[in-house]
Amino acid sequence: MTGLSATETGILERIKQRQADMAAQVVDWAQVNSGSRNLDGLERMRSLIAARLHPVADTVETVPPEDVTTLDEAGNPTPLLHGSNLLARKRIAATRRIILTGHMDTVFPADHAFQSCQLTEPDRLNGPGTADMKGGLIVMIEALSALEAAGVIPDLGWDVVVNADEEVSSLGSARLLRETARRCQIGMTFEPSVTVNGTLASARRGSGNFLAVLTGRTAHAGRNPEDGRNAVIAAADLALRLDGLKQTIKGLSVNVARMTGGGANNVVPDRARLSWNMRPVDHEGQHSAEEAIPAIIADIQSRHEVDVALSGSFARPPKPFDARHQALFGLVRETGADLGQTIDWQPSGGVCDGNNIAAENVVVVDTMGVRGGAIHTEQEFMILSSMSERAALAAITILRIAQGRLDDALARQPDSAGAIHA
Ligand SMILES: [Zn+2]
């Protein structure tokens, strides 16, 4: 005996019938290379996804990326190109809204060896971007298609964002994600589950990537070293000072990743580059790091008499697992139980667009995509049957949100921040 209503059973049956089509589609999509820097491949992928969204959405538009810059060898700003994004909307006038997101880019560039799919077991597909996350995009679109075909969420609007740069921090799509999220109360992102059993990610740390280019003054190491200003020494000092923030900012992880500079032994080096990643556990940690970095750089500049150009930011804010999130995850778990699926969750050190959506006061579950694993490697795989499984989980959870089930759950939370904001 399941807890599914007749309407829900109808949706489940429709989705089950779509399993073979979903499996065929994920192979087609995975074999289109859409590495984050392959702008032609991203454009092909975007038109394939748009064609699937057109029949189900009211509007589908292509949104060009924001202008983003990085630093060139000399420390001057230089453009960093990204692909265009998709925004699909349904019932634009509805004020109760859900944002659904996924990314079309993968970590595999056009010249990578890993470009095609193969079945390694009857239900296990190995292929680039299968789990992360072309399978998830299909799950998302099938869930929405089933709901719209049944006409069961007449008062809930939805906005789908499919971006082209998630694997490179969503710098070109951050504004689109932010502005779309602000219109919505609930969010679902279709990243793969954390484990092959379907476990969801709960709390996530934030993440920021940074690059500093240091410019000193060159001189002969023997003749007039006192006229030189050694950029490599300044970069080394900067690296140690940044690493030291681990001691003063609670829970902050710092990874000084790469340091380059200098040349011949008899020349005082006038140029060095340093890049690093930082992951705060909460907003307080992020703000402390944001204050500490420029202060350290100012000190390095005056102490070593060098110029420092800095680029980067905390593009992924921390995503705490608060009472409102517990309510949403509880609804997903309850829906899973009615479908015969066991849903658990655990914190994740990784980051995704769920971080950015949560930062806009949206309650979001960001691992609603397929079950799979070994992502970002040539062993990446997905469980094919998890496509209809997760599409049913998403569709029925969304239906229950539309019916007000989450409002009830939120109201039962004693320390809730209140009902979802309208
Ligand atoms: Zn991903």
Describe the structure.
- Helix content is 36%, strand content 24%.
- It has 422 residues and is of the alpha+beta class.
- The chain has two domains: 6-66 and 82-205 and 318-411, Aminopeptidase (3-Layer(aba) Sandwich); 207-315, Alpha-Beta Plaits, CATH 3.30.70.
- α6 runs antiparallel to α7 (283-304).
- It is elongated and about 85 Å long.
- It binds zinc ion.
What is this structure's SSE topology?
Elements: H1 6-17, H2 19-30, H3 39-53, E1 59-63, E2 69-71, E3 77-79, E4 85-90, E5 97-103, E6 118-121, E7 124-126, H4 130-150, E8 157-163, H5 174-181, E9 186-189, E10 200-204, E11 207-215, E12 219-220, H6 231-248, E13 253-261, E14 267-268, E15 271-279, H7 283-304, E16 307-316, H8 323-338, E17 345-348, H9 353-358, E18 363-365, E19 372-373, E20 381-383, H10 386-402, H11 405-411
Parallel strand pairs: 5-8, 5-9, 9-18, 10-17
Antiparallel strand pairs: 1-4, 2-3, 4-8, 6-7, 7-20, 11-15, 11-16, 12-14, 13-15, 19-20
The structure holds zinc ion.
Characteristics:
422 residues, alpha+beta, Aminopeptidase, Alpha-Beta Plaits, 2 domains, 6-stranded mixed beta sheet, 36% helix, elongated
Overall pLDDT confidence: 95
Biggest sheet architecture? 6 strands, mixed
Number of helices: 11
* Rg of Cα set: 24 Å
Number of strands: 20
Anisotropy-based shape: elongated
What is the fold-level CATH name, i.e. the topology of the largest domain? Aminopeptidase
Question: What is the CA-CA span between the terminal residues?
Answer: 36 Å
- The total domain count is 2
Q: Write the CATH architecture name of the largest domain.
A: 3-Layer(aba) Sandwich
Helical content band:
25-40%
Q: Quaternary arrangement of the chains shown?
A: single chain
Q: Can you tell me the CATH superfamily of the largest domain?
A: Zn peptidases
Low-pLDDT ranges: 414-422
Strand arrangement, major sheet = 1-4-8-5-9-18
